[in-house]
From TrEMBL:
Protein name in UniProt: AraC-like DNA-binding protein
GO molecular function: DNA-binding transcription factor activity; sequence-specific DNA binding
Keyword Cell inner membrane applies: no
Organism: Agrobacterium larrymoorei
Annotated PANTHER family: ARAC SUBFAMILY, HTH-TYPE TRANSCRIPTIONAL ACTIVATOR RHAS-RELATED
Record keywords, A-Z: DNA-binding, Transcription, Transcription regulation
Transmembrane portions of the chain: none
Listed PROSITE patterns: HTH_ARAC_FAMILY_2 (PS01124)
Highest taxon, organism lineage: Bacteria
């Protein structure tokens, strides 16, 4: 009697199942991401570190989880030649994703959809676990037309279809000794859930009077951090409600629209200071994060974090140098 072959996710890096071939020109994590995102570059304390992780791929679906050190990490990719969808999630801190003219800041465990065939920038200000999935656009079926409203938006993981999708991905990445039949079944279920998820999320974005309106407003704020002219009036107009109604939503969380916007911009600036090189002027970072007045930015930053922007950058650089010396 012939037994079905068992499939096991690939472990690489520090806890690798098998060593990388001696003639390999780059670490395994880089080769895997290059297959999913296009040619990649990595900025961090030690760019050539063999980051540990897991990989699983079958029937056009590729899944990987990377475990960088808990230090700022920035990964850029050139994009693939063919169309596809990338799904990203950071589990130990905020995730900043930029593609074309758009930038989005997602919170811990929030999901971001991006195009696989366009250059992409991924920043984790605190490092740590990064989940990434790639799939061809043909698996979206009729839901493909709805994807545009979901691209580069932070998506909360409290959506049931998304929770199921994450569970399937986690099973495929971590369950050893899967048979061909089990693996194919899981991928089919993953693909069947995807259009359901997309349709539900797109409907949530489109319908008025939805209970997740504040979440949508926060997503809009995240997508417009670099726009210094973005205002309460813009949000009210896009949501088709009054400015007073927007303020009431934030008041329920003990804050105001302007305070929330400032907090998001300061956090974006903090990430940029930690991740970008010393050649990037702090004034330019302030402008990129929506601050027109560098002096105001410096005062607000110091009030929020207790240090000046220049001091935070200097401390981060010294910490990286010390870490490199100690390795």
């Amino acid at each position: 009697m012939k037994h079905a072959a068992n499939l096991t996710p690939l472990r690489f890096g520090a806890a690798a199942d098998r060593p990388v071939a001696r003639n390999a020109t780059q670490p395994m994590w880089r080769m895997i991401l290059s297959e999913m995102l296009g040619e990649v570059e990595h900025d961090g304390p030690a760019p050539e570190d063999d980051i540990p992780g897991l990989f699983w791929g079958r029937l056009g679906l590729s899944l990987t989880t990377l475990y960088p050190r808990p230090t700022p990490v920035r990964i850029t990719s050139s994009g693939l030649t063919g169309p596809g969808i990338v799904i990203l999630r950071a589990m130990e801190g905020p995730l900043r994703v930029a593609q074309g003219p758009r930038t989005v800041l997602a919170g811990r465990s929030e999901v971001v959809f991006a195009a696989a065939d366009q250059p992409l920038s991924i920043e984790l200000s605190e490092g740590g676990r990064l989940d990434c999935a790639h799939l061809s656009d043909h698996v979206l079926g009729s839901a493909a037309s709805q994807m545009s409203v979901l691209m580069l938006r932070p998506i909360s993981n409290d959506c049931l279809p998304l929770q199921l999708l994450i569970c399937y991905a986690g099973y495929m990445l971590q369950q050893p000794h899967q048979t061909d039949g089990q693996a194919d079944m899981m991928v089919r279920h993953f693909y069947q859930l995807l259009p359901v998820l997309i349709a539900e999320l797109a409907a949530g974005v489109a319908r008025g009077g939805r209970p997740d309106r504040l979440s949508a407003i926060k997503q809009s704020v995240g997508a417009h951090l670099s726009d210094s002219g973005f205002s309460l009036a813009d949000v009210a107009h896009s949501e088709r409600i009054s400015a007073r109604a927007v303020q009431k939503l934030f008041h329920r969380e003990g804050t105001t629209f302007s305070r929330y916007l400032l907090e998001r911009r300061l956090e974006a600036a903090r990430q940029a200071l930690l991740l970008r090189g010393p050649g990037e002027a702090i004034m330019q970072i302030a402008f990129d994060c929506g601050f027109d007045d560098p002096a105001y930015f410096s005062r607000a930053f110091r009030k929020r974090y207790g240090v000046r922007p220049t001091d935070m950058r200097r401390s981060a650089r010294l910490a990286s140098q010390t870490q490199a010396i100690n390795r």
